[in-house]
């Protein structure tokens, strides 16, 4: 029987690592950055541009003067955001149709709701997220704990707005998930075997 697992995650919670390790434990496909690459390929947009608008709520930037009409003129930025989301939804649906897989982020739990995926949300307390981010920082990247906390807060806020805009649901709400995992002060590799047993 095909397994479709979606993973929502707070920034710094280790959700991406969890998804990768879970896919390896189950021997199934793993999709994350691959989705962005595929959108870029299909739309002729750069991966950097696609990444900059994926998981961010579309920006409304209507002109100040719109004449006497109650309808604003076309907004190319908003339309591009919507086009990228629609392409993303198509790609995620295609990936899920092909084989068992783990898909990280990008409203996959909502996009695939008719396929009844197993929906996981990964979270952690702020201290654990800061520690994990500092440990995984690229060489030469010297951020203070305060700067990392601001980055985590900002990214999670954008993810919440993005999720609410496209799904109409609250990001991280336990009612939207089948399993919520707290990774605070815990090594991801120690959690995965227990979760993998659910799909044995």
Automatic annotation (TrEMBL):
InterPro entries the record matches: P-loop_NTPase
Keywords: Kinase, Transferase
Keyword Transferase assigned: yes
MF annotations from Gene Ontology: kinase activity
Name of the featured protein: Cytidylate kinase-like family protein
